[in-house]
Amino acid sequence: MTNDVQAAAPTLPDPDIPYYNGIPQVITGKQWWLVMAAIVAGFAVVSFWGLGGAWGHWVPVIALPLIPLLALRYVAPEHWTAIFRRVSLRDVLLMLGIWILNVVVTVVVGWVLVKLVGAKDNPGADALADATTTEKVLFMVQAVPQLFGEELLTILPLLALMYYFHSRLQWSRRTAMLTAWLVTALIFGAVHRPTYDWNVVQAVVGIGVVRLILTLGFLITNNIWVSTGAHILNDWTIFGFALN
């Protein structure tokens, strides 16, 4: 009897990507615009904050994730944590795999870009070469909240686009996801143009390809900690070479 009941019970799928289809709640178009405005505000603080000092450098790196998270909590007060899940061993292994893949792809794409159009070094890595030990440690620590903010800068627009494509335009889940995945990678690359001396090809192609791989961590697990962890490992590796 027990076996019959178990056989008849439906197999529940893993939790889906949140918000795009009203699960665990509907975030309306106007609410998504509020979240997008918060992302722009956080990015503006990073771009234009001019105060330094021992504590001044922490303001932009904290503002980048904090402002969008506050907006998400406002529009989804009971379900704003849906993008966060407990990190399992599988998640850790996937995080490591994405990091290794990203390092390989970064080297290959970087080599191709140097040969075809030239490429600029990351100024952050250059600055570390002459930094003191304390400055180097603080730089690596401050990278953690900033890179988490960069994940929000990608994942939240991806969810907003999936909502628009799937719920408003009635596209299939697969088409909505693929389109949002590509569009947000292009946006992520575009906002990095100033970092690479406005080299559009390097930013959009080079950084965009890396972004596609990082976003896979979230799309596979529905857990922003996975893409964030891979992102931190990836950038620590890049900046680590500058420490030698």
Automatic annotation (TrEMBL):
Top enzyme class: hydrolase
Domain CAAX prenyl protease 2/Lysostaphin resistance protein A-like: 137-236
Protein EC: 3.4.-.-
Coiled-coil ranges (or none): none
Transmembrane helix found in the keyword field: yes
Residues in the signal sequence: none
A UniProt-annotated Pfam family: Rce1-like
Protein name: CPBP family intramembrane glutamic endopeptidase
